[in-house]
Every structure is written in structure tokens, then in C-alpha cells.
Design a protein that fits this description.
Chains A, B: One of its GO terms (biological process) is regulation of secondary metabolite biosynthetic process. The structure is a homodimer. In chain A, strands 4-3-5 form a three-stranded mixed β-sheet. Helix content of chain A is 45%, strand content 19%. Chain A is an alpha+beta fold. Chains A and B meet through strand 3, helix 5 and strand 5 of A and strand 3, helix 5 and strand 5 of B. The first copy, chain A, binds a DNA duplex through helix 4.
Amino acid sequence: MATQGQNTLLVAANKLKNNKIKNTPQRQVILSYLMTSHDHPSIEMIFKYVRKNGFSVSLATVYNTLQLFVDHNLIIEIAADSGGHMRYDYFEIPHYHVICVNCNKIVDVFDDSYKKNEKIATVETGYQVLNSQYEVYGICPECQRKIKEKEDKI
Amino acid sequence: MATQGQNTLLVAANKLKNNKIKNTPQRQVILSYLMTSHDHPSIEMIFKYVRKNGFSVSLATVYNTLQLFVDHNLIIEIAADSGGHMRYDYFEIPHYHVICVNCNKIVDVFDDSYKKNEKIATVETGYQVLNSQYEVYGICPECQRKIKEKEDKI
DNA sequence: ATTATTGCAAAGGCTTTGCACTAAG
DNA sequence: CTTAGTGCAAAGCCTTTGCAATAAT
């Protein structure tokens, strides 16, 4: 988790301006974090990150800001991890998430073929489809190794 | 939401026995509800349903029981609806969910083609894939109608 | 100058926990 | 008979809310 560079803050500031969202330091930092990291952070991770980078924030502001970004379709909420926490992700390019059920690590797969199912869903249900999400659950390579080590000891 | 028939309770009881889960009235009713309804109920819906059918339950038991069923892969948790509540679904035949962002109504689509992406995910990430979920968000036909009526009035 | 955002602290709501009672195998 | 499940109430945790201070355009 590197310290926020000045330039990514400017990119975020521009994104806010384009979306007619009032610029505040908190919003810039939160958005730039979501844009540049692949952490898929939780509320708490975002809260800590902003403070670690020398900005003031309250949890209330983090909640407000994320809701605002979701409403503007800048980011998406990802289904709760196994601790029951929502995770957030900047969502410009369609992709899906592969989630480790052991350590909750989330990685992206940039393949939008899952979106094809939206057409089928429209026809089958009559719903006016707005978007869709695909999530894969499994065990990450690191946890596979750890589990194997444990088993070998027995 | 029809009253629970005796036979579906027996089916549920058998399912529990096959999974070596101790049979209790609460578990039978909850499982039979999930097996036969297409409600994709929330915790609260399940709680009310069980009491409405003349059985005693506490919320703690509902939470315990659902966790138990999830652990035994009898049911799945569906991502929170817009009220932030988890929804539960009996999951024997692969299918995905189409969720109304307005009224939270959930319908099934019995098409398992989304599962194909699991192979891609395995290759791309090295994760040992256990399962995957696909969710489509949109507006149900009924809400489309309601929204149209409102607009026509303006 | 005007309007929106921030942040604190308190309130709210959902979920979990501990423990005594009761039921299942 | 032994082990496990249920249910109540209390505790815990996350999220939301109200309002005064502050910052953005």
C-alpha cells in the first residue's frame, strides 16, 4: 500500500469534476485509492488508508463517500467477504472477482464473457437489466500451500 | 406463502438425515421452506414463516440453522438486497438470480452456462475454485409498469 | 455569501454469545 | 443416558443520523 502520489490525486480530482461531485480531499484520496489499488478494500481499510496518508476522516465520511460513488456508478459494492464486510471496487473495465474463502483475498479477471448472460436473463424474466456481477469462490494459491503444509505435518 | 404440508416436512427430514444433521422441528420447517418456496427469504422472513406455521423459534436458532445449512452446502447466501439483508436459497440445481433493484424481488434463471467461467478463473488465477455465483440486477416487469405510470402522470 | 461536506457522538439495528433448559438419538 | 439444540436476554459490532463547525464554489 504505497503512499498516494500527487498525480493520482489529480486524476481523481478530475474524475470528480467530470461527474459534478464537489471536490474534497477526502473524496480525492478515497477515489484515487480505489482507482489505483487492487485491494478491493473494505470500509475499514479505506478509513485507515486515508488517515495513514495524512488526511483527516471520520467513518461517517467514508460511508457517505462510498455511497455517493456507488450512486454515480464510479464504483461497485462486492458481496460481503466471509467476515461479512462489503468490499468496494473501482469499476471502469468489466471484470469479475475471484475470492479466497480462507483469507478473503480478491483478484480480478478481466474477461467480460459473463455479461452475455444478461441477454438471456432479459428474455427469460422480462426484467430491464441494468448490470450483473459474477463472483468465483475458491482457495488462493498461497492458502493452498498453507493448507498442504498443515496436512503434511499430520 | 402456503401452509407447510406434512409431506414436504418429511422430505426435509430425510434430507437432514442424509446429511447427518440432527432432526429438529425448526430445522425441518426452515429447510422445507427453502426447498419449496421461491421466496429467497431473508432471516426475518424465515423467522416469521416458522412462527406463522405454529412452531416455536428464536432468531438465534434461525441464524444457527442457516449457518449450519450453508456449511453443509444445502443452501447458499445471496448477496445482500438493497436493504442490506442477506437472502437464502436452496441450491440443488445450478441457477442464477435476477434481482429487482426497486422492490428486491428475486427470480431464478435455470441456466448454468455462467459456470463455464470457473475454468477460465482457475487458469487465470491459480485459485482452486469451489463454486461461483452470478447475479443480475434490473427492474422487474411490475416495477417497470409502476415507474411508467408515475412518469405518465407528470 | 451560500450551500454542501465533515466529524463527532449518540442512537439504531442486526448478529452473536453465554447459559440454563429441553429435546434428540 | 449422553450429547446437541433451543431460546432468552444481554453484549457487541457495524452503520446511520443529527447537528454544529468547517470548507468548497
